[in-house]
TrEMBL record, chain A:
Top-rank taxon, per record: Bacteria
Species whose genome carries this gene: Geothrix limicola
Keywords: Membrane, Transmembrane, Transmembrane helix
Protein name: ABC transporter permease
Membrane-spanning segments: 40-58, 93-110, 131-156, 176-195, 207-234, 254-276
From TrEMBL, chain B:
SUPFAM superfamilies with a match to the protein in the record: P-loop containing nucleoside triphosphate hydrolases (SSF52540)
Protein known as: ABC transporter ATP-binding protein
Molecular-function annotations in GO: ATP binding
Keyword ATP-binding attached: yes
Keywords: ATP-binding, Nucleotide-binding, Transport
InterPro entries hit by this protein: AAA+_ATPase (IPR003593), ABC_transporter-like_ATP-bd (IPR003439), ABC_transporter-like_CS (IPR017871), P-loop_NTPase (IPR027417)
ABC transporter domain segment(s): 2-232
Source species: Geothrix limicola
Family to which this protein belongs: Belongs to the ABC transporter superfamily.
Length: 286, 306
């Protein structure tokens, strides 16, 4: 029978309460929500979303209103159509999203390194895998959560305005959601891996941007020198944009299925491995 | 409560802690972990708090191996070295998160946070962000996070670093209070005075080896090579004349108003000295043991093993 200090509460039952992964993820989300950066990006993405939804309505008007008939042909030349249009629902936000992931994800692990929070956590019933999963989960859920209304709202709008014959396919969410999940996992793992290599949150942001832009530049150079298009699968920006294209079946996706699969698997495996190594208890010396 | 059986820790080719064996019993009390920088204090604390597995030997806390063992971790609290905490965060929110990581929820969590804040005297300032807190306040919040789940074993690594004297005394009083209420506290420091003020029971580490364990007096008695120095204040010449007749005398030096004698067996000479002074045989005004304190024990032990 353990002896407890008489004035302190008894030791908690470990089977109660939320799993540490959820506790840590929720803490990171609420922390982001309270920060100015969260509000700024919230506003920016909201504007983009409104533009997307407005476009659906404009598209609807072009097809149904006689007054806009003369403009239909012109609109077809400047606005994407068919599969490209479906994939494009997610794309305009991608650069801004990478920037957000770098700003937020760059500090995720680096902040805990700087303030030596990990030894404190590991001295609680928190396993290193809980910590890693929480960080990966947060960094991946963040872009997914932001992309979710971009896939759902235009689809709903299209359904409401034109039923199954609207500009957004009735099956679009089924195609876009898996693509978003893969792209988000790619962004999250890269951000957490990069952040784990940094000693400060600012350095973490630098690492994420450096890795994303560095890998993109490298891929472009090798592509240019060798002419092998599959090398573009090393480019994480291109990969994130390619997955929606692949799932909706655009004619000429940025990266083909196999290179996209291999490139994404390589990135996720590599950066998860790096993050796992860098967040081991032995790295969290007290 | 704690049992180490030839437990060692390596960082690659570097030996952080040589095979070490000791036991700490159940129940409350404070034990000081003493040693200069690089002695292996933090390595030992990492083993005990389950951050690292031993490279060799066995570590048992509450009868189980602590490494990645939630059953052990739920019963211990750790306050690592340093006072840095994530800037911009409110202390109470951070504490709630740490409490949840220990499995506390709902009312139990609220009560634990309130109780821990009250214990460390931060109940009215917990809404502040860490940026707006002094070092002492941050240190108390770190202690609060270790106390929330009612640990039976509290491990503190250099908790007094950077604290002003007042904050230091407050923290010491707090630790004594916790120990009296049944918490076993293991506190590391490289400052002898801090440990001496806090506790008499020490574990002394030097260059990755456990040199001594026990009370200062017990350890001092084992140091036969070093005679005990006593300063006898009074008429120096008369005192010196008495001292040279004593068989335990190893060395002697004169001071202006005193004589300092080194004796091999103070237990034998002290009763005679007391008797002589009481009978008026020697003009003794004061008796001061010079090297029965922690500083002297530490110096002798580290010099012997250097």
């Amino acid at each position: 029978m353990p002896i407890y200090a008489p004035t302190l509460p008894p030791a908690p039952d470990l089977h109660l309460g939320q799993p540490p992964v959820l506790v840590l993820m929720r803490f990171d989300f609420t922390r982001l929500w309270r920060q100015k950066i969260g509000r700024f990006f919230g506003f920016a993405f909201l504007m983009l979303l409104l533009w997307k939804v407005a476009r659906i309505y404009v598209d609807h008007l072009l097809h149904t209103n006689e007054a806009f008939k003369p403009m239909q042909d012109f609109a077809k030349t400047i606005l994407t159509q068919g599969a490209d249009f479906q994939a494009d629902l997610l794309n305009p936000a991608s650069y801004l999203l990478w920037f957000l992931v770098a700003l937020v994800g760059g500090g995720l692990v680096a902040r805990d390194t700087l303030y030596r929070v990990r030894p404190l956590m590991y001295a609680h019933p928190v396993a290193p895998k809980d910590y890693l999963l929480a960080k990966l989960g947060f960094a991946s859920l963040l872009p997914f959560t932001i992309l979710l209304p971009f896939a759902i709202l235009p689809w709903l709008m299209s359904l409401l305005l034109a039923g199954f014959h609207g500009p957004v396919w009735a099956t679009a969410p089924l195609r876009l959601l898996p693509a978003m999940a893969i792209a988000s996992a790619l962004m999250g793992s890269l951000a957490v891996g990069a952040s784990s290599m940094a000693a400060t949150p600012r350095a973490g942001i630098g690492w994420v941007l450096g890795l994303v832009l560095g890998a993109s530049t490298l891929a472009s150079m090798i592509h240019g020198l060798t002419g092998i298009a599959a090398v573009d699968a090393l480019n994480p920006i291109m990969l994130a944009e390619a997955w929606p294209q692949l799932f909706v079946g655009v004619e000429r996706p940025m990266v083909a299925w196999l290179p996209a699969f291999l490139g994404t698997a390589l990135h996720i495996a590599l950066w998860t491995f790096v993050a796992a190594k860098r967040t081991r208890p032995s790295e969290a010396v007290i | 409560m704690i049992v180490l059986d030839r437990a060692s820790l390596r960082y690659g080719p570097i030996l952080g802690l040589s095979p070490t064996t000791f036991e700490l019993p159940d129940g409350g009390g404070i034990t000081g972990l003493l040693g200069p920088n690089g002695a292996g204090k933090s390595s030992l604390l990492q083993l005990l708090s389950g951050l690292l597995p031993p490279s060799g030997g066995d570590v048992r806390v509450f009868g189980q191996a602590p490494f990645r063992n939630p059953a052990v971790l739920a019963r211990l609290g750790l306050v690592p070295e340093g006072d840095r905490l994530p800037t911009g965060l409110r202390a109470d929110r951070w504490l709630r998160m740490m409490g949840e990581l220990s499995g506390l929820t709902g009312e139990a969590l609220n009560a634990a946070v309130a109780k821990a804040l009250e214990t460390v005297g931060m109940a009215d300032r917990a809404h502040l962000t860490f940026t707006r807190m002094s070092k002492g306040m941050r240190q108390r919040i770190r202690l609060a996070q270790a106390l929330m789940h009612g640990p039976e074993l509290l491990i503190l690594d250099e908790p007094f670093n950077g604290l002003d004297p007042e904050a230091r005394l407050t923290l010491m009083a707090l630790l004594r209070d916790l120990a009296e209420k049944g918490t076993r506290i293991l506190v590391s420091s490289h400052i002898l005075g801090e440990i001496a003020q806090l506790t008499d029971r020490i574990l002394l580490l030097f260059r990755g080896r456990l040199l001594a364990e026990g009370t200062v007096t017990e350890i001092r008695q084992l140091l036969d090579r070093h005679p005990v120095e006593l300063r006898l204040t009074g008429e120096a010449q008369v005192l010196a004349r008495w001292a040279v007749e004593q068989p335990e005398l190893a060395a002697m030096r004169m001071e202006e108003d005193a004589v300092v004698i080194s004796v091999r067996s103070p237990r034998d000479i002290l009763p005679r000295l007391q008797k002589a002074a009481a009978e008026g045989g020697i003009p003794l005004r004061a008796l001061d043991p010079l090297d029965l304190n922690l500083d002297a024990v530490f110096q002798y032990l580290t010099k012997d093993h250097a």
